[in-house]
Amino acid sequence: MSRVTITYENHIAHVCLTRSDKMNAVDQDMIDAIIAAGQEVAASDARVVVLSGEGKGFCAGIDITGLSGMIGKDPAELLMPRTHGDGTTNQWQEVAMIWARLEVPVIAALHGVCFGAGMQLALGADIRIAHPDTKLAVMEMKWGIVPDMGGMVLLPRLVRTDVLRRLTYTAEQIAAPQAENWGLVTELSETPLERAMELATVIAGKSPSAIKAAKALIAVAETADDATVLDAESRAQSDLIGKPHQMEVIAAEFGKRPAVFK
Predict the structure, then answer these.
(1) What is the helix (H) or strand (E) element at residue 14, kind and residue range?
(2) CA 126, 130, 132 angle in degrees (round to 5)?
(3) Other Cβ atoms closer than 10 A to 154
(4) 209-233 core/surface letters (b: 16 or more CB in 10 A; e: else)
(5) What is the distance in angstroms between the CA of the first residue and the CA of the last residue of the chain?
């Protein structure tokens, strides 16, 4: 049974988790499907991605029955090999990090529950839009483990250290308004998927090369020293100014029409 569907329209890739009977809980098939979806989208002409979940929730986390398959095996042999992401991630980490590495922006539309693995998947997105009733949790401590699907790369970029520690130590469920206040959620919407698509449409209408350059530049800006960031700014800008996409933006502005990019 398919775990993920991908549809393309107007340069927007909609990636939807489709295991609604299990609240889109992540099993091995889902891991494989999410990674494959990321690889497919990366090779497509999509300019922006929307991630969503079918049914009553975005994702309830890891299918805990799948953890039983690890009993009796050496966890290090399963977790330590860097099998994905050009040797930077294991398969579990790749579920979130493939979206963080994607050249184009990713928007996650959240509803119902967003727990554990689902939370880390959502963290791989650039933007998170949640229904006000959504519950979110860094759930791993409930099972005596720690976030290990990219959460410790992505969470510290969004929240203060005390919030990070509280979420990680307690595994408590928090409501979307609190998550927005803490920086986990970008905005609230009664119709998160519709709102995500609206925002994706806006982004898809911008210069594709400038959007990719902006995402790459932001990634540098989040981690590098000032001199490196300033150099990256100049390099990115010099690659954009006067090029076809930028000239089309100018022509469209003066012509009071939508830009058309080739």
Answers:
(1) strand 12-17
(2) 155
(3) 20
(4) bbbbbebebeeeeeeeeeeebeebe
(5) 37
One domain for residues 167 and 66: yes
In this structure, what are the phi and psi dihedrals at residue 130, rounded to the nearest 5 degrees? -125, 145
Element of type H or E holding 59: none
Q: Total domain count for the chain?
A: 2
Per-residue model confidence as pLDDT tens digits over 148-195: 999 999 999 999 999 999 999 999 999 999 999 999 999 999 999 999
Q: Do 148 and 219 share a domain, yes or no?
A: no
Q: Which helix (H) or strand (E) holds 169?
A: helix 161-170
Residue 51 placed within a domain? yes
Residues in the chain: 262
Residue range(s) defining the domain that contains residue 228: 208-255
Burial of residue 43 (CB within 10 Å: 0-12, 13-18, 19+) is exposed
Over residues 19-75, the pLDDT tens digits come to 999 999 999 999 999 999 999 999 999 999 999 999 999 999 999 876 666 666 767
Whole-angstrom distance, CA of residue 78 vs CA of residue 152: 19
Residues 177 and 197 in one domain: yes
Which helix (H) or strand (E) segment holds residue 16: the answer is strand 12-17
HSE-CB for 98 with a 13 A CA cutoff: 24
